Amino acid sequence: MRRLLAAVALLAVPSVALAAGPAPAAPTKLLPGSSTLPPAVGSDDPKADVAYGAYQRGYYVTAFREATKRLERAKTDAAAMTLLGELYNQGLGVRQDPAKAAEWYRLAANLGDPHAAAILGIMAIEGRGMAKDPAAGRAWLEKAAAKGEAAASYNLALILLATGNPDDLTRAGGLLRRAADQELAAAQHALGILYLKGRGVPKDTARAAQLFRRAADNGDVAAQVEFSILLFNGEGVPRDEARAARYFRHAAGRGNAVAQNRIARLYAAGRGVPKNLVEAAAWDMAAAAQGLSDAWLTQALAGLTPDERARAERLAADRMTP
Fold first, then answer.
1. How far apart (Å, rounded) are the C-alpha atoms in residues 69 and 83?
2. What dihedral angle (degrees, nearest 10) is formed by the CA atoms of 238, 243, 249, 252?
3. Kind and range of the H or E element at 72?
4. What is the pLDDT of residues 194-218, one digit of tens each?
5. 63 neighbors 93 (Cβ within 8 angstroms)
């Protein structure tokens, strides 16, 4: 069975500050699930995973039924157990029941399924569906990471980073590298931070920029901000204000307050984009609505006419609408 949706990250790796304006906040990341196209229900392919195909297409009752049928035929089908755990964990096709989800994950993990072990580890650490047990949670993460499971490698690395121990930092770098090589965007971003700061790995701004770009192109909004900063400042990558503005604009459109603030500054100054005070004001308003104010922008936009401010307010309202 293909890789299931993974668990919530334990803690965020600190971000870096731009030279001007407030520092980016460290985001909480969700580890992504599979992006591959699953087989359709009723596929003629004898190797097709119909249960998981139904899950990926949103046919959760069918997924539950197919996974249950598989377990009736094979009592040790760990992949089917993991799928049932996921359905109970999210309340898809069945009533949400974290305790029952944990039972299925545990059965699958004891049969060697690394994905189940990775999720079970997070549940034990958080006390979801079971009593909180950080030691047991870490043990499950260790088992999954030993099998190369990307989400477990990433989360275990975050635990190690929190200790500040040099040996733990070095090991965290290796775990993040393993997850990053599997194109886990959160791990690419975290590893980029380590290279940027020289924590657990040699300081290497160019390597950090490469990792931020990969994470950004894999959809990590925080990495889009980090890569934009390096692009704008020409650190570790050739200076390119127009390209930086594109990445800032993309992250701003996805609701990142820091990116909204930065693209507002670029529009106000005419750096990387044509100067446009209405656009600057609209993005500044969007950032301010999330608690990120900027005295420099307030002064730069003080001369807007009532009509220009009204247009900016309309644009901001559109951008803040889910």
1. 12
2. -20
3. helix 60-73
4. 999 999 999 999 999 999 999 999 9
5. yes
